[in-house]
Amino acid sequence: MAECCFIHFSRGDVSHRVRASTLHAGESHTENVELLNPVNLALQCTWTGNQNKLPNITGFWRKDGDEVENSRVTVQLEGDEYELKRVFSIVSEESLGSYSCVFGSEAKIEFVLAAPQIGEVRDKPIVSYVGDSVVIACKMEETKPKPGSWNWYKANGTDKEQIFVVAEPLRYEIKNEERKTKLVVHNLTEADGGLYYCGAVYAISTTMGHVELKVISFQEPLKPFIAIVIEVIVLVAAILLYEKSQSKKNYTEGSNRETQGENNGPEGSSSTRQRKI
Description:
single chain; alpha+beta; immunoglobulin domain; disulfide bond; transmembrane helix; Cell_adhesion_signaling; transmembrane
């Protein structure tokens, strides 16, 4: 059985230590770590090894799946444990991600470094009408640290364009309240539909959440009803045309029978008179 790791990171004289759960040989473990500020982060992994207890093994580090350059070292067995440590400089959003300490092929411990994530995600789009106003909201969980500020963005193809209220004060309002933010969009047009991103700004990174807005005209909800009405009208018209054609056909057949009867009448009388003579 292998005992998992702990991490120790510090900034100035501030330090924090998180101990992970016990790890069995041949398994892996993931530890999520939230960071708010740039920091020199010391990651330390301790493994009790397997039954063989080799005097030394190879250990190394990975960043986002790629082996960290010059990180491969020989780890000695000391006090029935193998210990692997390294200091990483986490200075920006690009420095965040997955860091793993690997003991040969026996055990791997992964640390996922990230800013606090926005937990509440809306699955369904917000639906509003052309000409109306809409409120789009984002919220950071109460257990998460408060962001320094909030930003709003609108998707433009593969890019995100930041929304600046001062540029269009009649179109947009942004209302921030510690862990909550609201974007108000006035006088909606169909072009306002799409993805909107709220950004919780921390010193180390900006965490994004997204909400989809769908803008429709007032006629849009009536379209299914109108389609049904049109289908009914077409069906009724087809029935009326059929009945009219049947009536005309019956009238024609009746007229033909009457004409045929009139033509046969004089012939019958003539033959009768001839027999009497």
